[in-house]
Amino acid sequence: SAPVLVLGIETSCDETAASIVARDADGRGTILSNVVLSQIADHAAYGGVVPEIAARAHVEALDRVIAAAMDEAGVRFADLDGVAATAGPGLIGGVIVGLTTAKAIAFAAGKPLLAVNHLEGHALTARLTDGLDFPYLLLLVSGGHTQILLVRGVGQYERWGTTIDDALGEAFDKTAKLLGLPYPGGPAVERTAAFGRADRLALPRPMLGRAGSDFSFSGLKTALRIEAEAIAPLSDVDVADLCAAFQQTATAVVRDRIGHALDRFRAAFPDIALPALVVAGGVAANKALRAGLEAELGARGFRLVAPPLELCTDNGAMIAWAGAERLALGLVDDLDAPARPRWPL
Ligand code: KG4
Ligand code: ZN
């Protein structure tokens, strides 16, 4: 039978994104188009995403972005088998823009609606890019989320760890702001850390050695601020050393927390020879973090699956794909599906 075509719309944060994905009868996916319009420039002056600005920018851009994705794929609404959009969690103004647009297209074209959980989009991306089989572990580290999930199947997720305060990307962004580096902070901290000495300062390593896989980053951020205030005025060398210390400490914390989850996975699924840990989210771009993860995984007999960066950060293909996976199981939604600011998987 012909592959199923799904339009995916993502508007839950500061990317306006749309994509067409095909899923064949064997469950293999192909990305026909993937258009992402970043709003970084709109928010840079404020040092972070401003929800009202984001919602208005989605309204202005979404029609064009969808049209571009349809054109690039050579697909008309009538050709679609489903229309998927992020229904949460996220900034609610943006979510409403994307979900309402998806409902209008689904209604007008007479196609099923798929109201996708954004986190499910991240969780299933590795099946699109790497054809991964269930079960596997997911480490999601973005500006809004820091979670370790067991992915058992479509719609079957267990949250094994989460942050009790700041997300990891948020901690990078706040560190950058504190040290006078530009937004978004993660890439700036990574670039600057390359010139610094990580061992000049000993920062606390929150949760290290604690049972389970939860994270905490606000204490680290506070400790960094106290160190910075003690040294101030900061030279370029000081800033580089602080960035290096922060990045090394954050990596150590992630290694420790993920180590617990790997042990737990091994105990739950002793028959899987080389289990996979998938990374997603913008912080997955960080090379020091990746190297630390790879060392931890190698030592415990796991492999790292890292989808290409443009599919690790927010995009429409992950929503289209999650929609296609749900559609294949008949998990479609009614047109009154709500937009949900909070929606744990
Ligand atoms: O997944 P993403 O693009 O958007 C969401 O938050 O949903 O992630 C953005 C986050 C920001 O906090 C950014 O500072 C961080 O990912 N980030 C990085 C790096 N590149 C992006 N953090 C550390 N190192 C990087 N190279
Ligand atoms: Zn995301």
From TrEMBL:
Family the UniProt entry places it in: Belongs to the KAE1 / TsaD family.
What's the protein name? tRNA N6-adenosine threonylcarbamoyltransferase
The record's catalysed reaction(s) read: L-threonylcarbamoyladenylate + adenosine(37) in tRNA = N(6)-L-threonylcarbamoyladenosine(37) in tRNA + AMP + H(+)
Q: Which cofactor does it need?
A: Fe(2+)
Q: Which GO terms describe its molecular function?
A: tRNA N(6)-L-threonylcarbamoyladenine synthase activity
One Pfam family matching this protein: TsaD
Q: Which InterPro entries match?
A: ATPase_NBD, Gcp-like_dom, KAE1/TsaD, TsaD
EC code(s) of this entry: 2.3.1.234
Function per UniProt: Required for the formation of a threonylcarbamoyl group on adenosine at position 37 (t(6)A37) in tRNAs that read codons beginning with adenine. Is involved in the transfer of the threonylcarbamoyl moiety of threonylcarbamoyl-AMP (TC-AMP) to the N6 group of A37, together with TsaE and TsaB. TsaD likely plays a direct catalytic role in this reaction.
Q: Which residues form the Gcp-like domain?
A: 30-321
Matches recorded under Gene3D superfamilies: 3.30.420.40
Q: Where does Fe cation bind?
A: 118, 122, 314
UniProt keyword list? Acyltransferase, Cytoplasm, Iron, Metal-binding, Transferase, tRNA processing
The protein's location, in the record's own words, is: Cytoplasm
Q: What does the note under cofactor report?
A: Binds 1 Fe(2+) ion per subunit.
Q: What residues does substrate bind to?
A: 140-144, 173, 186, 190, 286
Species classification: Bacteria, Pseudomonadati, Pseudomonadota, Alphaproteobacteria, Hyphomicrobiales
Q: Which residue ranges traverse the bilayer?
A: none
Q: Which gene encodes it?
A: tsaD
